[in-house]
């Protein structure tokens, strides 16, 4: 029978010592509340905390200010995510980086790859070097000794071998036979190599002869094959022209120096032409002694060309003249002195002709310098009796033309009056050329003082535009169109100076405008406002020049009264500038839309006592632009004219132009604001005015523009569905019921009635406060623990010191006792 199995031993339940259990008393006992910390073991908890501090804080305190610890600093040892292979690769990479001492940009000289003692660059030359070490492994072709000879010589008995003759071979004979056999085999090997090389070269030559035939057959086959689109594109890409390396681009300073040098050369040439020197006179071409004038071209008339017939007679008479000079006269009396100045002049001319015939063989007589000097002397002495010839007239014409040309080099003006004297009596195009050459000749890269001079030039040009606007508006606009590119160049050279200069001008004009706000300022402000859009970016959210101009334009459109033709044209010009300013930024300026609506209101007839509402500065009763006459057959230009800014009277043609311009501006603004959600509300008043505007008396072009603009505004209304703002529907208020308020989790605490976010915030603050107090408590306990450790160490060191002192005292006492005993013994002996 089986013995009964013993029951497993159940560990006895550990009973707590009642003296170690601490009971936390509560002020109030609440039924159903579960308490977690009603009982505790402070001794056990204190022991656990002490053990934990000994394992952590005490160990750190012991190792404090010590660096004699072993740390494995190998790459990857501290990184637990790296495998062994990754560690090896990282270490190898570090070694390679450390060994790489050359420049990182010298990529071609890092490593030289070789193969059998040769670099890859040498192997890629595809040479066919013949090496002496190349031996064939086939039997019978090697230069080594054969097996029979080696067997007989080394393993066949040597000197003991029976040769059939008396005696045996000596060692000397064997060595000689070995050398002879080796030379023989090397010679045979060399012959085989030479024969192989000759055959190879012969084969290469024959293949080169056959190569053209093979290529032709291949081309024929390729031509027969149909070429698809892919092959066609591939060949185009294959034979596409490659880009070539070009010269570097020149810097701005180099370009400025070249332009300055070019202008100086042109100015020097003009100065020489003013003095009578032609360009051909400066070019002294070299002529050798053997020059036969094969390329000589006569520019004179062939009718007066000196030639001879078969009988030897000249084609010109003896006293004939060519270009006013005698031909065929005798030169025997050349050395005789002339009796008067006329004879002296003729003699000088004859001498010049003779020298010219001897040197140049009847070359062009117009370039003769000595003749020119004689003619000038004659004109000075007898201007009334001697008429200049054709050559002198041409030179005088050339000199006069050179004087009338503009100089190529200009210095910067030292005052505004000097600039005005330079530009006065010059056409606007010539003024632009002068300013352009002045900027090129005084570029900031050529001299340090030029930068300051160009700053002053920019201010002078602004003043020049202002003066032109005061004199004549037409002249001002022509001058502005010519000088605007050069003002832009000056702005790019020094933007800060351009900012301050334009800003000061706008500020000055605005102060003048504030003195009479109801009246439009001078026409020069239009030029400066247009210049701002050309020189500075108008799409910035805020700009130190453009933003004040926006404010200035808005004040003029809102405050200035509209009474005459020039006021309407002035306002339309300002609205056009606003459109130009806001094309990129899509910015909305209410004053511009209000002004366009006011122009439409002026064109609507007022019937009866009912007035149409309009915003200032327009009057509800004005009808200055109402077209009463029939102008349907009018075919003049519909663009605004420059004269509209100066005239007062409003005629029918101006009414048509103003309305057409207004409709076009409304269309452009609508396209510009199409993305805005308030586009429909912006043009609400304008659409109302257009519905009241009659178009029966306007030309067909204006009617077409009116229909297109009206249809565009109406389509915006039909495409947009307005969602009215309504109050949210209120939920019905529930009846007050006397039922208990049930909480999801009841912990016995009364909480404040507050929002979820505030409750969550209070909860986090309470948790933060609790954790902060706990952290401070732990820090205090750590500090007290370290204090106890320090006291224990201090007490231990003090105890050790006391023990050492006691030991020293005891040893000293023993020594003293022994010394005393010796002294007593010595006394007894005595």
UniProtKB/TrEMBL annotation:
Where along the chain is composition biased (Acidic residues)?
291-302, 331-362, 369-379
Region spans: Disordered: 123-143, 250-393
Chief subcellular site?
Answer: nucleus
Localization = Nucleus, Nucleolus
Matching InterPro entries, A to Z?
Nop14
Asked if DNA-binding is a keyword of the record, the answer is no
Tell me if Zinc-finger is a UniProt keyword of this record. Answer: no
Q: What keywords does the record list, in alphabetical order? A: Nucleus, Ribosome biogenesis, rRNA processing
Compositional bias ranges of the Basic and acidic residues kind = 250-290
For biological process, the GO terms are: maturation of SSU-rRNA
Q: Sum up the protein's function in the record's words.
A: Involved in nucleolar processing of pre-18S ribosomal RNA. Has a role in the nuclear export of 40S pre-ribosomal subunit to the cytoplasm.
What is this protein's record name?
Answer: Nucleolar protein 14
Organism for this UniProt entry: Zophobas morio
